[in-house]
Amino acid sequence: MREMAESSLKVVRVWGYNTVVGEDPGTTRIWFQRLTAPTPENPDGAFITNELGDTGLKRLDFVLDTAVKYKLKVIVVLLNNFLEPNLGGLPDYVQAFGGDVSTWWTDALSQAAYTDYVKTVVTRYKDREEIFAWELMNEPRCNLPSGGGCDKSVITDWATKISGYIKGPESEGLGDTNHMVSLGDEGWFHPDNLPEGADGGYPYQNVNGVDFIATLQIPTLDFGTFHTYPERFGEPDEWAATYINQHVAAGAAANKPVINEEYGKEKDPEPTNRAVPDSGQRVRIVTAWQDAIFNSQVAAGMYWQLGSPWSADKTEGDPVTVFDDVPAEYKPIFTDHARRMIGLPVEETPTGP
User: Fold this and answer.
1) CA–CA distance from 190 to each of 130, 141, 186, 211, 245 (Å)?
2) Catalytic choice (139, 186, 231, 329)
3) Catalytic residue among 135, 262, 266, 329
4) φ, ψ dihedrals at 152, nearest 5°
5) 196 noted as active-site residue
6) Residue 325 per-residue DSSP state
7) Average pLDDT for consecutive 10-residue bins of the chain (353 residues)?
């Protein structure tokens, strides 16, 4: 985090979950929540949060304490839609309690376990000033087994319920009035609510059951999020500016700020239709996107992702990762952009539909 602070970054986003399924792994790995499948003796299954162990939430304590040290704010992500090695994710709930990615949102056992974890984490940290926001899930998607997205009401209703639980009065919720809440979605537009300039491509087809415009109407979500990966969405690089401006317009219509929470360009020595071969090409493409971010009224732009060299190896990452020991990429993409954004005037945006 020292490097982030020195580069004028102000807000960082961290995984605030780590799920395992089955027997207690002991001290062999870090875990925050353990899920156990139902048995005849325990038909409701089990879910346990590792609050006290050195391999549990004490690790998140350390992250937050370090953020305080370097005067950074933190977006805490409460679950990932995808299963990540050594981190877990939504599929762990499916493995433990059954169903699939389309039923998880309403499955009683899965929701009981998820809500219990949210309660534990929010209660533990709701007075911590370094938390910028709670994020309900990284890239929530509700995909039908037969293909396509679920009805948009599934995720919209779920986000309404969970965000309301976090911010609601203690008589019926967690009473966290200190922090903002976001969904963490990729900003998919639904055919029912298409923005101007929609080209009918992947981001506009309800492939994943999300309606960005509908979620902006949820009173207990404080800002919108979207992720920009043109090549992964089947769009040309220059399309990124269109996607950014479409979300800014949707946020303005809803009187809510929006954050380009992820964007990135793959790099590979053997380039493909998704990747460029060298730092120069990556920087040219990404800084053009950052010009669009700067010139729009998007509340923030967060490159995915920053990597660091460790004593033994570099941090794990996908092909979009920019490492802070590669100044030809790190300086223009992180440091220069952050300092440029800091110079923009801050306008207070009223929240709420």
Assistant:
1) 34, 13, 12, 5, 16
2) 139
3) 262
4) -60, -20
5) no
6) T
7) 93 97 89 94 89 94 98 98 94 97 97 97 97 98 96 98 97 96 98 96 97 98 98 96 98 98 90 84 97 96 90 70 93 97 75 48
